[in-house]
Amino acid sequence: MTKYIQYESYDLRSYFSIMPGHIKTCFHCGHILCSKEMHFSKVVAEDMKWDSLIPVHEFTILFQCDQCSWWCVRESWGFYETSNCMYDRLIVGVIPVGDQIEHKDDAPWLLALDDEKVYENLLNLPKEFAKFFLAK
Ligand SMILES: [Zn+2]
User: Fold this and answer.
1) Is residue 20 part of a domain?
2) From the CA of 13, how far away is ligand 1's center (Å)?
3) Most exposed of 25, 98, 130, 134 (fewest Cβ within 10 Å)?
């Protein structure tokens, strides 16, 4: 069961001028991550309904560490007309602080992808996270 039952979201575009490649190793323990394509989030599903612009979904990928159970989801989408500035977002699993009731959810990323507000409070990517995108 994952300890990282909560999540926060980051805007990768505000940090990187050129879209970086995917992360390979865990932010916490450095172990190689497993990755898996996911169905796009509820937020993206809403944008896919536009008919005045042509929506484009690039990817929604879940990255998981089987060593420490940390996870993140990177998602990119946008519109054909503005394809030079696609959204590039990262949802990161975090350990709850304080006395949170532990629930038995094994897949908190599914809750995140189903959360209409998942990208409402975007944080700036910290330098210590950014370096994982640049590592070859
Ligand atoms: Zn790890």
Assistant:
1) yes
2) 24
3) 98
How would residue 82 be classed by pLDDT, with cut points 50, 70 and 90? confident
Question: For residue 1, is it within any domain?
Answer: no
Report the number of distinct structural domains present in the chain.
Answer: 1
Distance, CA 34 to ligand 1 centroid (Å)? 10
Residues 7, 79: Cα–Cα separation, whole Å:
26
- For residue 103, the CA-to-ligand 1 centroid distance in Å is 21
pLDDT of residue 123: 96
Nearest to residue 77, comparing CAs of 95, 111, 53, 98?
53
Q: What spacing in Å lies between the alpha carbon of 40 and ligand 1's midpoint? A: 24
| Ligand 1: centre distance to CA 39 (Å) | 23
- Per-residue CA distances from 67 to 1, 22, 75 (Å): 12, 19, 23
Give the pLDDT score at 98: 73
Q: What residue numbers bound the domain in which 77 lies?
A: 6-134
